[in-house]
Amino acid sequence: MCGIVGYVGPRQAAALLMEGLKRLEYRGYDSSGIAVLNGQGLVVVKQSGKLSALEQQLTGRTPTGTVGIGHTRWATHGPPTTTNAHPHTDQSGKIAVIHNGIVENASAIRRVLEQRGHVMVSDTDTEVLAHLIGECYRGSLEEAVAEALREVDGAYGIAVISEDEPDVLVAARKGSPLLLGVGEGELFVASDASAILAHTRSVVYLDDGEMVVLTRSGYHVRDLAATRIEKPINQIEWDLATVERGGYAHFMLKEIFEQPDTVRDTLRGHLLEDEGSSRVSGLNLADDEIKQFNRIVITACGTSWHSALIGEYMLEELARIPVDVEYASEFRYRNPVVDERTLVIGISQSGETADTLAAIREAKRRGARTLGVVNVVGSTIAREVDGGIYLHAGPEVGVASTKAFTSQVIALALITLRFGRLRNLSILQGRQIIQALKALPEQIQDILDRAHQVEALAERYWRSNNALYLGRGVNFPVALEGALKLKEISYIHAEGYPAAEMKHGPIALIDENMPVMFIAPKDAVHGKIVSNMEEVRARGGQVIAIASDGDDLINRLAASTFTIPETLDLLTPILTIIPLQLFSYYVAVRRGCNVDQPRNLAKSVTVE
Ligand code: M6R
């Protein structure tokens, strides 16, 4: 979604803001802008399109000044035009505001302000907020922002500067991520640590309802009612090299190839080999408490929802506990049956997805215990849940989630081991799972070493306009995930289905122009999926198969086959997904698509 960066210090702000915005580019945006206080007044430069367009605008006329704010916008109110780009100014033109989120009562506020003579030029809720802050200004920017935000419904992460207070930057958050960066004699605000990581690793995470006021002599955090809040300074563990491409053509490819390491990192320190179990102390759950749960709800969006479905198979099969998987966006607005004996697990790479966060809050309100399976350390979901497990997969920059998916499945396997051993799983079964988990990094590497075979497959099918992905059992969610990967980065229409469901409708689509990707490792439902493959062949469909090494039968049936090493049935998704990620990547590259920043998508969806 939108990216925010702000600076107060001795250095020229514009260059730092642009550098920060570049680091946020991966999150997806459609326009950008900066505002700088140059000693005489406020200079605002903004532009629709990519950041390079803003850079061009700035060439030869970069505003000087050491206090400023910068923004990349992902349109919610109004199209992605230059006028709608941030920063927006108030009626006086002296106050500039950047904003991530949605002001839900913007229309009502706009009406009142217009009746009082305010003239607004954009369609945005942010301009309304800027005018409201201007209306509240009586000599203190800090108080004006607090007063205005007390009137606002909805979500926001904002940063505000004013030419009447040239040494002050005020920022605030509610439902949209924001952190303060504490450097040597300089301060930053950002929606994402990667924007400021080149300058400091010391950060203060703001919580909902908090404001931070940055001046040249320091900062303070407060709430909207003016109560000061003491916040700890956290150290970010990863460095800039982790968020750079490191020789790969795209972040997505780099992240696909990182998976042997990221899977290892997610497993690290958690396996109890002798006991056939796992140690996940972050869950903050005693054995007795785990035994008390009579149901688990896993809630998530997108790719994380797909890993949740795999978690459902694992937990039900090995821990014998009923699991429901819910789209977070649906869960939050239903009247879900959740109580203190329900464990609600939220899965989120970013830890900032608005719907997942809201679903977790709803679950907590109803008395459920909540866990997070999260990648981004210090993110809002990670801080709000009762316990959880970090993926330690490192920053995921490509909009299409890859390494986070495999690490999420690993994390769910670790939770399953612990729960299973307290319920139904024998020590021998537990040890067998641990051995299989430990073998995965090398097996993934084996697949990656044959990436050229997948590239050849992509070369054969990249012109297709549609694709069907079919899987059964624990590989049904992999079919969904494979289809999602293909559609989001190559814009080919793709659907995932449980293979047997095909005959209840999608079979009508099958002809010689329809590639059908079967996820068919040698598992308990192998014979069944072979029958489904025959059905597709009988109708002229082009069968592509992801099969186990040495599966001659499937090799004979399919037009193209890619094989994976054997593992336990429940762990096959961690291997079957790798060729599907590569396939999407190579198809998208062949079609000339922008792999890392697909159209209309944002890395972290912080609005509803
Ligand atoms: O950060 P989250 O895991 O909560 O994000 C959820 C989805 O927005 C995300 O998985 C999305 O579907 C990706 N584009 C998938 O590649």
Describe this entry's structure for a reader.
- The N and C termini lie close together (11 Å).
- The chain folds into three domains: 3-236, 4-Layer Sandwich (Glutamine Phosphoribosylpyrophosphate, subunit 1, domain 1); 239-446, Rossmann fold; 450-593, 3-Layer(aba) Sandwich (Rossmann fold).
- A hairpin with a 4-residue loop joins β16 and β17 (277-278).
- The chain is an alpha/beta fold.
- The protein has 19 helices and 27 strands.
- The longest helix is centred in the last third of the chain and has 22 residues, at 427-448.
- It is globular and about 75 Å long.
- The strands form five sheets. It has an eight-stranded antiparallel beta sheet, covered by helices on one side.
- α15 (451-461) packs across α19 (572-590).
- Residues 301-304, 348-350, 353, 356, 399-401, 488, 601, 604-605 line the site of 5-amino-5-deoxy-1-O-phosphono-D-mannitol.
Quick structural overview:
By secondary structure, this protein is an alpha/beta fold. Helices cover 36% and strands 24% of the residues.
List keywords for this structure.
Rossmann fold, alpha/beta, 608 residues, Glutamine Phosphoribosylpyrophosphate, subunit 1, domain 1, 27 strands, eight-stranded antiparallel beta sheet, binds 5-amino-5-deoxy-1-O-phosphono-D-mannitol
